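Pilot study result, target chain (450 residues):
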Amino acid sequence: MTEHHYAVIGAGPMGLCTARQLKRFGIPFVGLELHRDVGGLWDIDNPHSTMYETAHLISSKHMTEFADFPMAEEVATYPRHDALRDYFQAYARAFELYQHYEFETRVLEVKANERGWQLTSECAGQVQTRQFKGLLIATGTLHQPLQPALPGEFSGELLHGAQYTSPQQFAGKRVLIQGCGNSACDMAVDAVHHAVSVDMSVRRGYYFLPKFLMGKPIDTLGGLVKMPRRIKQWLDARLIQIIMGKPSQFGLPDPDYRMYESHPVVNSLILHHLGHGDVGARPDIAAVSNRTVTFTDGSRAEYDMILQATGYQLDYPFIDRADLNWQGDAPALYLNMFHPEREDLLMMGMIEATGLGWQGRNEQAELAALYLAQRAHGSDSAGALRDTIQQKNAQKVDGGYQYLKLARMAYYVDKASYRAALARHRRALVADWPSNKSLPSSHSPTTGCQ
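Predicted structure:
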């Protein structure tokens, strides 16, 4: 059985920046990717992608891109999925990452042993088992649909948002969209232009933000004045209400929680279509019979399609949950990354946060590589971080925000608090870097995405 150093599983945004940082610090690794190219879910040609034709970033490019690999000027402020696929492919070329990956390779199983991890994979019908010193899992959080059972039998077309690819799927149909997150609102807006009718079944209120305010991306505004958390929550909620109105003015429930305690919806078009009667607002589903849906307010309607835009759940099918220290809805890991017992297992990208972007994830990857390098050097700083990992693995990096008790919020972090923690640990590891070795440069080999 062949023995290798580290395995990076996945070649989406998180896998790529992880590979880049390992390479930067001279840590040998093998990358494993199920698709034939890099980009993860942003490559709509990837049969495992959950992307749809009209999908765009909900954060602006300058707040999302890697800081040392900016997107080209001609790329739109909120790029479409194909521009992002091109961006990640350019990133992989610029940092010469392709040569480190085995493509069209499925990881079937990983098992812990005394020497690290035994990994079994399959490529072109050939199964092989290899021994790795450590694993860095970067397969993303948006693969396994969370699809609640309907209260009854629906005789029409039932699908999850993961199965939605094109607005043409709505043509000539009476459509009910279950959910009101960012993807649900995108899909409802798409359906307006193709379906016979469109309703949304919504249980919980959301805060709705426009993509542009005063001609600028909304995520580039604010933050200049630091203020107490509760004051910021109250003030920002009031400003958004003044700008957008209350959801109840459009037939939707108002949020029963403070701003920033769940991910906002960055979409003003859905309110436009609700206000014009193009989309109907419905409460939760009470019963389903054939094509008739009865709602909790007693109203009912006929539908040809129910699209459940109900999100995703964490899923790592190739590894036993016990090996991930899984507790409740997610693994309990320090910084959503470091295992309390196994130094040779790192979870990469199991984080969601408003405004974290790929740069925040790159900072996570840098800390992982720096930690592995310093552990190999036997540094005191790596030992100190290991002590912290064991003591604080269950600690939430929520910045004091009371996040909703939902499965999708189990791995949510506060951007400022999370990046501050990454920076603090990075400084400690860098300060202890061996004096006879140069710290690898973090500069990009190019001027950006060309």
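One observation from the pilot: The chain has two domains: 3-143+314-431, 147-310. A full batch analysis is planned for the follow-on phase.
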